[in-house]
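hiii, so i know i said id send this last week but things got crazy w the move. better late than never?? heres the sequnce for the chain we talked about at the cafe, plus the structure i predicted for it. fair warning i was half asleep when i ran it
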Amino acid sequence: MEPRNKTQISEFLLLGFSEDPELQHLIFGLFLSMYLVTVLGNLLIILATISDSHLHTPMYFFLSILSFVDICFTSTSIPKMLVNIQTQSQVITYSGCITQMCFLLLFAGLDDFLLAVMAYDRFVAICHPLHYMVIMNPRFCLLLVLVSSIISILHSILQSLMVLRLSFCTDLEIPHFFCELNQVVHCACSDTFLNDVVIYLAAVLLAIGPLAGILYSYSKIVSSIRTISSAQGKYKAFSTCASHLSVVSLFYCTCIGVYLSSAVTQNSRSTATASVMYMVVTPMLNPFIYSLRNKDIKSALKALLGRETIKVPIVLRVKTCP
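okay and structure toks below
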């Protein structure tokens, strides 16, 4: 289907990874599996946090919010890609593309801010343990999430409005499996200088800002851990933030890797493949990182899954009574 000249365009074409029909079934099965694992894993983290009263703490409150955001983040792009593969169509409507881009920016920004908030939570827990519950009270935790959400919403709306002012001609092919902001802007036939300025300024403020906060928090955490005399005390203090540090490293390393690869190579398909790391792989691995390295989460998951399996024999036993 060839794009046509229109004053008001109605659709984009998402080229995805490959047009080879033999690879489409493999890609469909792979992404469907990763999406289901992502949703199920993060949903279990949320349910475990809600069901276990021992996990009703600021740390696990932020973790449950992060899991919810990860589900939403992947759900904005993967289902549409799977539908396109199944229907053998590359089309996404203009309004659908702008909406998808808006929500992707929203949840990506929330992911970024939540990682910084969780780093601050670990900083308070390790460096100011006696005042932890006073500082990280429920009202303050909700305020941190609310402020992060507002900033992310304003950013996504701003970028979407900046795209809406652009005019598009005939080159409406996006060499990605989702409506990525830079790719959509580059499809425009009008001047995009102002868009590029806003994109780079937002990247500096919204990416480097939280990263600086994370680095500052962990520099204080390391300094505090070094003052602990016993090796067991140092290990216990570090183990409380090891999972979060792993998630932070995975998130930022994959994002930096994607943008470095896009700067080095002009192959947009390669950039789309690299984007899978932070779009799909990172949200999928987060529940495993937190569950495998956290005894409280593992205990809560065992209790949650145990209750579900116990219900079946109890019901059967009641049914067989005379």
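btw Residues 1-7, 309-322 have pLDDT under 50 and may be disordered. thought thatd interest u
miss u guys!!
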